[in-house]
């Protein structure tokens, strides 16, 4: 397929106003599935299961099987609805969305249609420079995930050209909450950034609620991005009608959400400028090429024949339950960030470093474990992030906040220099134990015995008499060579500042 | 009728289309009767005995063995159900 | 030996308990009867090879002094709509030929736990769609009273099995009359419990909001005994009621003592005039009412103005729900797979499989249901039908403010000839005119034999309907009338059925 022609981004924004909408699917991390008591693969415990081993009869749509609603999934959905600023429906119900597809055991998806559990909300989203954008939420509804298809044969592993497909129903029935925004206007040239920040915010919210593993790379969070363009109206003219939108499906990283929205704006702008029309269709995002390609056009085959699920009953949460869940809500991400920024005394730039690195939780935990905000930030955004990048891992996976705080305490006590502390960190990451255990195991503590240092200094001074003369002449910087020699003799396990003091003392004698 | 056949995933031959069309018309005429009394002020009943909030504790139960999962499969490979090539896209 | 099969389940249970008869003997007697007559009746789709082993186990446990349930060791026929681990389950369809369920339906599991002996799986209209069992993919079941006639449907196999003394007890399912109408045409007892009174888990769904599993037997007490085993809350079925139910067997025993008819207010529906029924059916109904009146019951005419819309509403709700419930039969995970020539896609395979695997009646209803739910039609059809449900519930509520139970003939005609109505779906659908409103409202209904129609000598049933959750009242009233009728006949109605000869299986 020939690559689509793209209009220059700034030019596109001159001609058109981008209009956005998002559907984010969140996989809940309950123990069991939405409608069966089979283990939930979206829970860390069961994530690595073999295909078709997390299955109850209803997950396969076996004859005679019936769904029963998971109470925890209901609680999680209400909490999420509340965190999105939504109203919780006094009565909501499940419906059947009927369509045939091999990954759907019953050939209908149990979802919520005309009566979602949560509706009419709003989320504050903070951009990297601290700008706040309000994203209006239309609804959040509960549904079940489908199984997974693997396409075999053909060259690409994609659906086109495959000889056959294999179906694993482990994921069938995983509890989902689908969050649907209203149409989002006014993001202008920051549309791609807003898209990314929105998904990030949803991730932060579900993480802080603890209701999802929220790992995009595993599909715990999946974003469908709707993009359309509308021509700019001339001064005094009424606004042009909304353009035809495309829905880019299953974008599975923050960066890709941003890129996909940007790409669609540029692609659509070029088509419209060339006098073409936009087809209403779903599109697929390709991570490797950074492009989207057309999927299924909307057609009358999309007649889902919704009707109320007769095997399930209405969900009518008691007011007390809603209040209990509301009381248990964590702080909204934006409010929390404002509070933490003030408490920690970081500059805007320092705080963005932490937030954009996804390090808010670990820095907070490290401070709680006794480190100062400045040192906690320094460790996480500096050395730990560097090591994580090298290992292609999340910084948070590498080391616990408690160990980072303990490490810093050893530095503060003078047991470790910064350089030694970095070695100890590597030991901790390598699994050699707590910082103290690594210090003991590797024998890495600073030599704090002045006698040993003085002996080494005297030896170095004796070996370099010209330097001693220079120091005595007042050329203090010449001491560096002696310090270097002493540090080398001490295998780095000395406090360089103390060595310097002692060198000057000895030279003065 | 053919469109309904596509939606219902039943491949109807010409004969079936003709026969079903005739029967369907008669049945549809008959059941149109419901609109005579189903006025706007009447509430719909979806469950004969009203209940609500029927939930299950979030506890793992007994699952099917892998063998049970596949025991009725018309075709399987690699521990999974096997189907011929899929034309349409995911929903 | 042949005496054993004529015993009621209650009588057999007593002889098992006193160890006068062993469960192996009882089971063998029924297996012999099946072998002797089922070639002609064709009530069974499958006979359980493990039946004698299960019976031997019960005998051993009884011998070891284990405390067993009241009907332990009694054989049970199971409608093929109920999934079973030890026998195939087809729901009367080609698309499920050879299917083996990895789990038991709750009612089957409870029957096993109560020591009942699964004898086999009984024939039915495909996916329970029909009133004659002619729509079974495996050939029709024949009425033991006249082998040229239908045994009713969809549960014709279960009703014929108990009527032909092939089993003392059977399980059925009733979506619009599939337990009660077969009982009517075979001279047996059929009970549809309150919706939610018996678990639907493992009953292959036809119309989820209407389906209910229930007992099929020769006496009201036997139904109560079986209902006590299968009923009660099941967490696997969200629509299952949490009520504490009284013993229905106890209710039947109490009813048989007779007092319940004294002062009982029995409603008859003004909108169901006798002219709508075959004369012999109407006459038998009137005779039963007269007998009840003689025992002190009061017959009260009530109005049920919306009943006439019941059939129309039913034929919207049922196909709509069924079209969705039957979507799972797609050749991917279980069941038939038909792969057309060429390079078929999975869509082609699904469509060809469903065309080949479903019978005409099933296709007709799936297409009708697909239509009724399709964009733009939902409100006019499914939505309106659900409103009719509300109106029918109101009719019942109004009636039950005046009367204790409602009585109707169980069906408009006696058993018709096989093939007589098969090409006229509309005529066929009218068979269920008196049973359908009961399912729409979720209330319980029982059909008991009321006599024979004078013009054709075929059985007729009377249906009693009670308010939701008042199943016990139906057992009382049913058993009371049963006792009075038995008195007047001198012997059970089924003793007047012709001897079944030949047709070994
Ligand atoms: Mg969507
Ligand atoms: Zn969704």
Features:
heterotrimer; A: 509 residues; alpha+beta; 9-stranded mixed β-sheet; 3-stranded antiparallel β-sheet; 17 helices; 15 strands; C: 505 residues; alpha/beta; 11-stranded mixed β-sheet; 11 strands; binds magnesium ion; binds zinc ion
What's the topology here?
The complex is a heterotrimer of chains A (509), B (91) and C (505).
Chain A: H1 9-15, E1 16-27, E2 69-70, H2 71-83, E3 87-88, E4 95-98, E5 108-111, E6 118-126, E7 132-144, E8 148-152, E9 164-168, E10 175-181, H3 191-209, E11 221-231, E12 246-251, H4 254-273, E13 281-286, E14 291-297, E15 307-308, H5 319-327, H6 333-344, H7 348-356, H8 360-368, H9 373-391, H10 395-398, H11 401-412, H12 418-429, H13 435-442, H14 450-463, H15 465-472, H16 479-489, H17 496-508
Helix pairs in contact in A: 1-4, 3-4, 8-9, 8-11, 11-12, 12-13, 14-16, 14-17, 16-17
Chain B: H1 2-7, H2 14-31, H3 34-37, E1 55-56, H4 66-70, E2 76-77, E3 80-84
Antiparallel strand pairs in B: 2-3
Chain C: H1 2-6, H2 9-17, H3 23-41, E1 44-47, H4 51-63, E2 75-79, H5 106-113, E3 117-122, H6 156-163, E4 169-174, H7 180-186, E5 189-192, E6 212-217, H8 220-230, H9 248-256, E7 265-269, H10 279-294, E8 298-302, H11 310-325, H12 346-357, H13 360-373, H14 379-400, E9 405-409, H15 425-429, H16 436-441, E10 445-452, E11 459-465, H17 471-489
Parallel strand pairs in C: 2-3, 2-4, 7-8, 7-9
Antiparallel strand pairs in C: 1-3, 4-6, 5-6, 5-10, 9-11, 10-11
Zinc ion (ZN) is lined by residues 25, 143, 178 of chain A.
Give structural notes:
The complex is a heterotrimer of chains A (509), B (91) and C (505). Chain A has 509 residues and is α+β, with helices and mostly antiparallel strands. Chain A has helices at residues 9-15, 71-83, 191-209, 254-273, 319-327, 333-344, 348-356, 360-368, 373-391, 395-398, 401-412, 418-429, 435-442, 450-463, 465-472, 479-489, 496-508, and strands spanning 16-27, 69-70, 87-88, 95-98, 108-111, 118-126, 132-144, 148-152, 164-168, 175-181, 221-231, 246-251, 281-286, 291-297, 307-308. In chain A, helix 8 (360-368) crosses helix 9 (373-391), helix 11 (401-412) packs antiparallel against helix 12 (418-429) and helix 16 (479-489) crosses helix 17 (496-508). Chain A starts with 8 loop residues before the first helix and ends with a helix. Chain B is α+β, with helices and mostly antiparallel strands and 91 residues long. Chain B has a two-stranded antiparallel sheet with strand order 2-3. In chain B, a hairpin with a 2-residue loop joins strand 2 (76-77) and strand 3. An eleven-stranded mixed β-sheet of chain C has the order 1-3-2-4-6-5-10-11-9-7-8, sandwiched between helices. In chain C, strand 7, helix 10 (279-294) and strand 8 form a beta-alpha-beta unit. The mean pLDDT of chain C is 96. Chain C is an alpha/beta fold and 505 residues long. Chains in contact: A-B, A-C, B-C. Chains B and C meet through helix 1, helix 2, helix 3 and strand 3 of B and helix 11, helix 12, helix 13, helix 14 and helix 15 of C. Strand 2 of chain A pairs parallel with strand 1 (55-56) of chain B, so a sheet runs across the interface. The structure holds magnesium ion and zinc ion (ZN). Magnesium ion (MG) is lined by residues 23, 224 of chain A. Magnesium ion is lined by residues 23, 224 of chain A.
């Amino acid at each position: 397929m020939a690559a689509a022609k793209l209009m220059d981004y700034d030019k596109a924004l001159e001609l058109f106003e981008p209009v956005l909408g998002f559907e984010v699917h969140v996989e809940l991390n309950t123990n069991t599935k939405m409608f069966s008591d089979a283990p939930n693969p979206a829970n860390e415990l069961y994530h690595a299961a073999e295909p078709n081993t997390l299955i109850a009869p209803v997950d396969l749509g076996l004859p005679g099987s019936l769904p029963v609603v998971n109470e925890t999934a209901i609680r999680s959905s209400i909490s999420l609805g509340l965190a999105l600023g939504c109203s919780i429906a006094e009565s909501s119900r499940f419906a059947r969305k009927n369509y045939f597809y091999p990954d759907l055991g019953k050939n209908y998806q149990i979802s919520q249609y005309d009566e979602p559990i949560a509706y009419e909300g709003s989320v504050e989203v903070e951009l990297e420079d601290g700008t706040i954008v309000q994203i209006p939420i239309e609804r959040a509804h509960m549904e079940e995930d489908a199984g997974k298809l693997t396409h075999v044969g053909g060259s690409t592993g994609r659906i086109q050209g495959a000889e056959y497909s294999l179906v694993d129903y482990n994921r069938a029935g995983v509890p989902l909450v689908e969050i649907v925004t209203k149409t989002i206007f006014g993001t202008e040239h920051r549309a791609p950034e807003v898209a990314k920040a929105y998904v990030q915010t949803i991730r932060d919210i579900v993480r802080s609620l603890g209701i999802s593993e929220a790992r995009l790379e595993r599909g715990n969070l999946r974003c469908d991005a709707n993009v359309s363009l509308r021509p700019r109206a001339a001064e005094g003219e009424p606004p042009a009608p909304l353009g035809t939108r495309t829905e880019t499906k299953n974008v599975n990283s923050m960066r890709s959400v941003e890129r996909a929205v940007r790409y669609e704006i540029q692609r659509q702008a070029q088509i419209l400028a060339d006098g073409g029309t936009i087809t209403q269709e779903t599109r697929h995002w390709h991570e490797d090429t950074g492009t989207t390609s057309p999927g299924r056009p909307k057609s009358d085959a999309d007649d889902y024949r919704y009707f109320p699920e007769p095997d399930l009953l209405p969900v009518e949460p008691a007011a007390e339950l809603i209040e209990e869940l509301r009381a248990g809500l964590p702080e909204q991400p934006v409010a929390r960030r404002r509070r933490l920024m003030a408490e920690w005394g970081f500059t805007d730039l320092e705080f963005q470093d932490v937030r954009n690195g996804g390090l808010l939780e670990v820095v907070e935990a490290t401070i709680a474990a006794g480190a100062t905000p400045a040192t906690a930030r320094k460790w996480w955004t500096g050395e730990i992030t560097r090591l994580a990048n090298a290992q292609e891992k999340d910084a948070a996976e590498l080391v616990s906040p408690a160990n980072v705080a303990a490490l810093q305490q050893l530095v503060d006590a003078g047991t470790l220099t910064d350089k030694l502390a970095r070695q100890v960190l590597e030991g901790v990451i390598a699994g050699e134990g707590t910082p103290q255990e690594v210090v003991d195991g590797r024998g890495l503590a600073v030599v704090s015995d002045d006698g040993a240092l003085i002996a080494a200094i005297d030896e170095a001074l004796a070996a370099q008499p010209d330097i001693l003369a220079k120091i005595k002449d007042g050329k203090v910087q010449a001491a560096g060579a002696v310090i270097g020699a002493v540090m080398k003799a001490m295998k780095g396990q000395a406090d360089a500042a103390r060595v310097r003091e002692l060198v000057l003392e000895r030279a003065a004698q | 009728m053919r469109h309904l056949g596509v939606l219902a995933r039943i491949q109807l031959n010409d004969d079936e289309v003709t026969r079903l069309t005739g029967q369907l018309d008669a049945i549809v005429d008959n059941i149109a009767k419901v609109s005579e009394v189903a006025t706007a002020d009447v509430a719909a009943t979806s469950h004969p005995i009203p209940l609500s909030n029927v939930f299950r504790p979030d506890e793992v139960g007994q699952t099917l063995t892998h063998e049970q999962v596949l025991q009725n499969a018309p075709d399987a490979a690699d521990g999974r159900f096997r189907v011929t090539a899929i034309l349409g896209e995911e929903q | 030996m042949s005496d054993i099969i004529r015993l009621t389940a209650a009588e057999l249970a007593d002889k098992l308990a006193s160890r006068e008869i062993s469960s192996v003997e009882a089971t063998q007697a029924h297996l012999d009867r099946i072998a002797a007559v089922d070639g002609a009746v064709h009530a069974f789709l499958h006979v359980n090879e493990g039946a004698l082993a299960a019976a031997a186990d019960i005998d051993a446990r009884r011998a070891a002094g284990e405390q067993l349930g009241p009907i332990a060791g009694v054989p049970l026929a199971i409608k093929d709509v109920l999934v079973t681990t030890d026998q195939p389950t087809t729901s009367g369809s080609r698309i499920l030929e050879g299917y083996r369920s990895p789990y038991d339906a709750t009612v089957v599991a409870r029957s096993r736990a109560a020591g009942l002996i699964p004898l086999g799986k009984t024939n039915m209209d495909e996916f329970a769609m029909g009133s004659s069992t002619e729509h079974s993919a495996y050939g029709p079941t024949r009425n033991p009273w006249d082998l040229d006639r239908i045994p009713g449907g969809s549960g014709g196999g279960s009703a014929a099995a108990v009527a032909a003394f092939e089993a003392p007890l059977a399980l059925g399912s009733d979506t619009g009359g599939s337990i009660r109408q077969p009982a009517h045409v075979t001279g047996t007892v059929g009970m549809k419990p309150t919706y939610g009174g018996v678990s639907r888990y493992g009953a292959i769904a036809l119309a989820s909001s209407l389906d209910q599993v229930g007992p099929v037997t020769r006496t009201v007490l036997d139904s109560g005994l079986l209902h006590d085993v299968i009923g009660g809350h099941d967490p696997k079925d969200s629509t299952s009621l949490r009520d504490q139910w009284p013993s229905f067997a106890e209710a039947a025993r109490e009813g048989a003592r007779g007092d319940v008819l004294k002062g009982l207010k029995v409603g008859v529906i003004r909108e169901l005039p006798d002219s709508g029924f075959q004369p012999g059916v109407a006459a038998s109904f009137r005779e039963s009412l007269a007998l009840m009146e003689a025992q002190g019951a009061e017959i009260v005419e009530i109005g049920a103005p919306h009943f006439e819309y019941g059939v129309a509403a039913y034929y919207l709700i049922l196909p709509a729900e069924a079209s969705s419930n039957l979507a799972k039969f797609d050749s991917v995970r279980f069941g038939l797979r038909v792969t057309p020539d060429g390079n078929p896609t999975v869509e082609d395979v699904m469509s060809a499989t469903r065309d080949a695997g479903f019978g005409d009646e099933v296709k007709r209803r799936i297409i009708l249901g697909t239509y009724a739910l399709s964009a733009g039609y939902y409100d006019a059809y499914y939505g309106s039908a659900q409103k009719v449900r509300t109106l029918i519930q109101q009719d019942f509520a109004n009636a039950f403010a005046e009367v204790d139970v409602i009585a109707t003939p169980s069906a408009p005609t006696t058993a018709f000839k096989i093939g007589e109505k098969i090409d006229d779906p509309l005529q066929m659908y009218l068979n269920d005119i008196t049973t359908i409103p009961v399912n729409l409202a979720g209330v319980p209904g029982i059909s008991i034999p009321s006599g024979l129609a004078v013009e054709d000598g075929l059985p007729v049933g009377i249906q009693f309907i009670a308010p939701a959750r008042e199943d016990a009242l139906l057992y009382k009233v049913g058993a009371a009338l049963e006792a009075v009728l038995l008195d007047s006949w001198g012997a059970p109605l089924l003793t007047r059925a012709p001897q079944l000869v030949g047709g070994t299986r």
